[in-house]
Amino acid sequence: MTVTVKSKSAPLVVPASVRPWVAANPFGWLVGRLRDALLDGHLAVQPGDLVALAVAVALFLGGRWVFRRLSPYFEDFL
To answer: Are 3 and 36 found together in one domain?
Structure first.
């Protein structure tokens, strides 16, 4: 049995047993925000946007730190 759930911008057909997995998908939030911005023309900054920005910056800085620390050894592994 499938259940139709009305989202803000488009209907979403998701089986009830899979709905928690879809809700836990972080890319679902990103796609929903992009859909709202591109199709509906609605782009308001929300607290979740600031959290996503903070996580992205933290991942970038962590990756940069690892790269700089290990870059002298890259030629040994290539």
So the answer is: yes
